What we know:
The chain is mostly beta strands. It has one domain: Peptide methionine sulfoxide reductase (Metal Binding Protein, Guanine Nucleotide Exchange Factor, Chain A), CATH 2.170.150. Helix content is 6%, strand content 48%. It is built from one helix and nine strands. The chain has one helix at 10-17; strands at residues 22-25, 31-34, 38-45, 48-53, 59-69, 72-81, 87-95, 107-110, 114-117. The strands form two sheets. The chain has a six-stranded antiparallel sheet, with no helix packed on it. It has a three-stranded antiparallel sheet with strand order 2-1-9, with no helix packed on it. A hairpin with a 2-residue loop joins strand 5 (59-69) and strand 6 (72-81). It is globular and about 50 Å long.
Amino acid sequence: MELSPTADTKAHVIAIYHDKPHYACSDCSAVIALQDELISKSFSGREGRGFLIHSAVNVKHGKKEDRTLLTGVHTVADVFCVGCNGRLGWFYVKASDSSQKYKEGKYLLERAKLVKDNAWKLDE
Length: 124
């Protein structure tokens, strides 16, 4: 489904995430990412464990900056929840080292900032 840049994407996001396991903001419960988008749970964020995730919704990016991380210098932009403006992690814009290029265009989301919603349905 191709959306115009001015389209209201709320209905589109709801349709994609409805009844699917996802991660939500721990402060305001805004949907952030599908669990299917998870690449790795073995990353480190500023405040502990982090998840490397393919894509995210309901987030806004801060200013790009070069940051020295455990795996070298990366150009990143902090990521904030659109619901509560809480910092969730960062977006990898560019990696200096060729072995780290796989992170470009991906999100590092802090485990402590997310709630896992499995979208389970109970039999009635």
